[in-house]
Amino acid sequence: MATTEFRIVPYYSRHEWERVYQNLFSRAILDQAAALRNIAIWRSRLYARVPRAIEASAALVGAQLNDAQAHSSGRADASIEDLVRLYSSAVVRFVGDILEPIREKEQISTKEAGFKLGVPDWIVDLRNTSAHATSSQSLEVLRSACNLLLLWLRVHYWEKERERLDRQGPPSAPPPGGVAPSATVLEPEEDRICRLLEEFRAAASGRKCSRHKMAAIKEKCRGLLADIAAEVERDW
């Protein structure tokens, strides 16, 4: 007899999950704010045991939302230091929620954990230095990091979770006013960065090889990271 796998999730339905996913990655401030409110409700349902990738996504989007609201309203009280602090906390959260469990499980360094997951070294360096950053230049770097990490989460968690839900069977009709699940189409710039990330991850996976090949792999990875940084800087 086939066994049924039960999995505790914070959402009531596929449509609720889909609505939060779409709102979280929307470019509209009101949509993002709605997604963060829903995630707060999810925390209350699971007594704060929401999946780490969702918490990391919420922290990053929350920083972007505060940044966008401050910019649109022209608030003088939103200083560079405040925004740097928010973005820094979000980056620290990502590293703690996504990379640290791999580091602890496999007894490797945080950078090696990032290497395995296709997260660039400079993200870990940024985590280590952002606590002391206050300049506008630091803010721009943190904004770029936030965009890159959100794209990573979208590709490696949210889209994979959607695929898992799809394998469970087609969803029922959405409730009145609900959102019907649909395939996500990445923006052209997001697609370029996604392909670069996947190429970086593929190159990084060949670490156990001859010294000559390792030098070539390292050189290729450096070039790919430079391309990723250039794409993030240009498109955001």
Structural description of this entry:
The chain starts with 13 loop residues before the first helix and ends with a helix. Helix content is 71%, strand content 0%. It has 236 residues and is mostly helical. The protein has a domain at 186-236. The protein has 9 helices and no strands. The chain is globular and about 55 Å long.
Please supply descriptive tags for the structure shown above:
single chain; Las1-like protein; endonuclease activity; mainly alpha; Las1; 236 residues
Shape: globular
Low-confidence stretches: none
- Biggest β-sheet description: none
Question: Percent of residues in helical segments?
Answer: over 70%
Strand content: under 5%
Question: Strands, helices and their partners?
Answer:
Blueprint: H1 14-24, H2 29-45, H3 52-73, H4 80-106, H5 110-117, H6 121-129, H7 136-167, H8 188-204, H9 211-235
Helix pairs in contact: 1-2, 2-3, 3-4, 3-7, 4-5, 4-6, 4-7, 7-8, 8-9
GO molecular function, one term: endonuclease activity
Protein name: Las1-like protein
Pfam family, one: Las1
Summarize the structure.
With 236 residues, this protein is an all-alpha fold. It has helices at 14-24, 29-45, 52-73, 80-106, 110-117, 121-129, 136-167, 188-204, 211-235.
